[in-house]
Give the backbone structure.
Amino acid sequence: AQKITQTQPGMFVQEKEAVTLDCTYDTSDPSYGLFWYKQPSSGEMIFLIYQGSYDQQNATEGRYSLNFQKARKSANLVISASQLGDSAMYFCAMREVLFGNEKLTFGTGTRLTIIP
Amino acid sequence: EPEVTQTPSHQVTQMGQEVILRCVPISNHLYFYWYRQILGQKVEFLVSFYNNEISEKSEIFDDQFSVERPDGSNFTLKIRSTKLEDSAMYFCASSESHNTEAFFGQGTRLTVV
């Protein structure tokens, strides 16, 4: 089974609208972290937001928030008031802490295109 | 703002040649990683490095690959005899601890011809 699943290969969103990028995960580790990264066309990987499995509140960072639903094993990224510069690939990733893993396991990504 | 830096940004090499990809992690970080991304595919873990030794590696990281921290700042990935399928973007990353966010460099695009 895939550890990280991103079911939206591509999305088109009107500028200034909010957008939700889906991510579901699969783990039996009770302690894990969930991450979102942005990859613009230039290729670099930019860290956006982190959610720990024991965090009581959803993580927020500026226009980014993480809709964490633990029972459903989903960690959707919400971008409010989208901008043209948000056009990029977005990757969800997970680290399983108690299993001793240090690696991040990535999903296949969602290509977001913001339309002016 | 501190960042992970990688050199070169792009390297073209002939099949069978050795390449060394270089990285300078963020200075107070203790964990270092290499990932790769074949064009159009997802990012894959190669290796993690802590306390001057490999702490975890993937199946991809076979005997052709090695990592080294030759001094207090650099972290290198060596591919001994490159194959066409090694063509990819290689990312170095670092983190303060094993359960905090990893910050990535801008990547080295390796093209094997």
Q: What stands out?
A: The CA atoms of residues 6 and 23 of chain B lie 4 Å apart.
